[in-house]
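Design job #97: recover the sequence.
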């Protein structure tokens, strides 16, 4: 595990790999999380997966917060939709896709959240 801190943002990065002696499921994984963001960085526009998950997303039908359903949280269906060319690439396929939560669905989301809230009182 690595902890990377800068004046604008801090990350936690984890590298994992499969059991060296049991190669049935051979894998390598690199995961990263934003752990802290400065006020200056918070005010900027974010893109990619970070931008799509910066704010809470609610299911328009149930009003419940969506935390794990990738098809509702992200624009891109596959990881490849977020791949860029090179270390400093900024263009990726999901950037041009419309998010599933659009302005036209906002009223139904607000209504669903209200219904969900009042049904629990």
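Job complete. Output follows.
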């Amino acid at each position: 595990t690595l902890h990377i801190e800068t004046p604008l943002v801090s990350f936690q990065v984890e590298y994992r790999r499969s059991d060296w002696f049991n190669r049935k499921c051979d894998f390598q994984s690199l995961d990263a999380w934003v752990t802290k963001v400065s006020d200056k960085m918070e005010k900027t526009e974010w893109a990619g997966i970070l931008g799509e998950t910066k704010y809470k997303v609610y299911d328009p039908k149930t009003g419940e917060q969506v935390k794990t359903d990738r098809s509702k949280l992200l624009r891109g269906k596959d990881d490849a939709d977020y791949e860029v060319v090179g270390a400093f690439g900024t263009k990726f396929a999901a950037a041009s896709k419309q998010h599933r939560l659009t302005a036209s669905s906002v009223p139904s989301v607000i209504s669903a959240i209200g219904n969900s809230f009042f049904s629990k009182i």
